[in-house]
Amino acid sequence: ATAPGVGTLAHAAVAPIQTGVWSHAISAFGPPKYGPDFKHFDYVDPAAPKGGTMRLSNSDRRSSFDKFNPFTIKGVAPAALEMFMFERLCAFTMDEAQAMYGLLAEAMYVEPDLSAIRFRLRPEARFADGTPLTAEDVADSFRRLKGRFVQPRYATPLSGVDAVSVEDAHTLRFTLKDRSVDALFGLGYMPVFSRRWGGGKPLSEVVTDLPLTTGPYVIDSVQMPGRISFRRNPQYWARDLPARRGHFNFDRIVYRMY
Fold first, then answer.
1. Is pLDDT at 70 greater than 90 in this prediction?
2. Exposure string for 106-133, b = 16+ CB within 10 A, e = fewer
3. In the chain, at which end, N or C, are there fewer CB atoms within 10 A of the end residue's CB?
4. How far apart are CA 89 and CA 169, in angstroms?
5. What is the pLDDT of residues 27-42, one digit of tens each?
6. How far apart are CA 153 and CA 82, in angstroms?
């Protein structure tokens, strides 16, 4: 028997997840490690000093770049863009098998039959230019990431999602055609950006438009194709959020690609 408010996941050998209630986190293997009042993740130092510059070479096989859009097939973008600028609806912990905690979203609601999931956004979430994140931005990110010429590693996790509807300025509902834990976590991992990025063009047409994102860093300088530097945004909206406390401590991050 299943306890009230708890649904089982079809075709998945995992413990039941909590459904039918708003929750700060979703875990596929039992209750989340961190409760709703957690202060920081155990593996970070919340009092870590901030400052300085970290200088890095290319972080993978990329030896140059020719665009600022990491999501499309054509061209090469710096890996640092996704790591330091684009955020997701949820943060994923390093000390649990499979769990996600609200980041851009403050809470999640999974329907008991796994037909849909709702995300309630944090009203304090802001893009780097100070404009608020809205449900329309998240819906636009979803639709564009489902468009043509998007890299499979971004499009495939969303393949089990049927549609999105905006319920109000801070609430979205995603209907699922694949009623599984993978579809839930695929949405939590979806990158989010402003609907104004690239003037709303399909992602395949967004190439050298500078990203407008909510992340802790912004682009400081660029010398395409081999140099890019980032500076920490002192107005970063989530700098005191428990899921971010102790992270992103360097003032500048500089990449030289060879």
1. yes
2. bbbbbbeebebbbbbbbeebbbbeeebb
3. N
4. 15
5. 999 899 999 999 999 9
6. 13
β-bridge partners, 204? none
Give me the residue label for tokens 């998945």. Answer: 12
Rounded to an integer, the average pLDDT of 196-201 is: 94
Reply yes or no on whether the pLDDT at 152 is more than 60: yes
Which residue in the block uniquely carries the two structure tokens 């990449």? 255
| Average pLDDT over every residue of 155-174 | 97
203-234 pLDDT, tens digit each: 999 999 999 999 999 999 999 999 999 999 99
